[in-house]
Amino acid sequence: MGTVTANYPSGLKTKVEKEKTDLVEFYNEATEDYRFWSKDFNMHFGYWIPFITNVFRRDTMLNEMNNQVLKRLGLKDKKAIFADLGCGMGGTMRYALEKNKQLTSMGVTLSETQVKEGNKLLTGNTGVILKENYNQTSFKSDSFDGALAIESFCHSGHDKNSFKEAHSILKPKGKLVIADAFLKKKVENLSPSSDFCYQKLCSSWSLERLGAIDEVVAELKAVGFKNIVLEDISFRVAPSVLHVPFAIFGFALRKLIKSGTLKKQSINNLKGSFFALLSGLHLKSFGYYFITCTK
After folding, report:
1. Of 131, 151, 199, 258, which has the fewest beta carbons less than 10 angstroms from its beta carbon?
2. Is the CB of residue 212 less than 8 Å from the CB of residue 159?
């Protein structure tokens, strides 16, 4: 169901299968870790608004990220269906469905754990999570009024296939909203320190790569999206990123007290969080963006 079936040379096939296995393991193991990050299972960073969101209360910023993405999706106060492409535990879906009872949502993830536990949390809401690959879903063309991807497309390297699939499943004039970190320049043009942070970030969080923002916009246009609006929200996201070192220390301490050890993926999550913080200091190389575009 929604699985990519390409004919790879044997060596490349093994590499692709290993990367997929590593990614699924990351999703499965990360779920417990993210409970510590967010009581609402928001598996992303937050959006800070002065005097509106409390910088000391992480979940207010994480839910404000949901609010800002949904605001740009433009489905408020009307009956509509949207897709969450890489939905995790369905935190954004639940937020949207509880705010607007006219909405219906379909989410996709590769993790069986997230499907099982996420659907339990969605009980009573008009949403469901399916185990599918967002690069090749089982959804028919022209099915959704909107689609969103919050820090999910990075796990397949901001690949053009992700944009093509999103374009396919959207109805005419439907919107796609992406909230994610991107490179501001090509990898080969990164400084040594930026490149070090980038490589460590990708390996720790099972990111295939981060797309260069100019190339991503060009690829979105190439697959047929129009009215592309780009917003650099790095400074809005920064306060939630600053929660990372405190979350790292608190999570590690609690896990060690509870079990005496940390799982490999938990260690990688901690490393990834640390390098996300360091990457955010390289303002000329990394940025966090909203991308809103229309089919």
Report:
1. 258
2. no
Walk across the sheet containing 144-150 and list its strands.
127-131, 103-109, 80-85, 144-150, 170-183, 286-294, 226-232
Q: Which two tokens stand for residue 213?
A: 């923002």
Lookup result for tokens 């409970």:
35
Domains along the chain?
A: 10-182+207-239+286-294 (3.40.50.150)
Q: Can you spell out the DSSP letters for the chain?
A: ---------HHHHHHHHHHHHHHHHHHHHHHHHHHHH-TT---S-----TTTS-TT-HHHHHHHHHHHHHHHHT-TTS-EEEEEET-TTSHHHHHHHHH-TTEEEEEEES-HHHHHHHHHHTTTSSEEEEE-BTTB-SPPTT-EEEEEEES-GGGGTS-HHHHHHHHHHEEEEEEEEEEEEEESS-GGGS-HHHHHHHHHHHHHTT-S---BHHHHHHHHHHTT-EEEEEEE-HHHHHHHHTTHHHHHHHHHHHHHHHHSS--HHHHHHHHHHHHHHHHHT-TTTEEEEEEEEE-
Residues near 84 by beta carbon (within 8 Å), at least 6 away in sequence: 90, 92, 93, 105, 106, 107, 108, 147, 148, 149, 150
pTM for the model stands at 0.87
User: Residue 289 has which token pair?
Assistant: 């963006």
- Among residues 267, 276, 208, the alpha carbon closest in space to that of 18 is found at 208
Average pLDDT over residues 92-99: 97
The single-letter code of the amino acid at 188 is E
In this structure, the number of other CB atoms found within 10 A of the CB of residue 149 comes to: 24
Q: In the prediction, which pLDDT does 275 show?
A: 85
Summarised one tens digit per residue, pLDDT across range 126-144 is: 999 999 999 999 999 999 9
Q: How far apart are CA 230 and CA 210, in angstroms?
A: 16
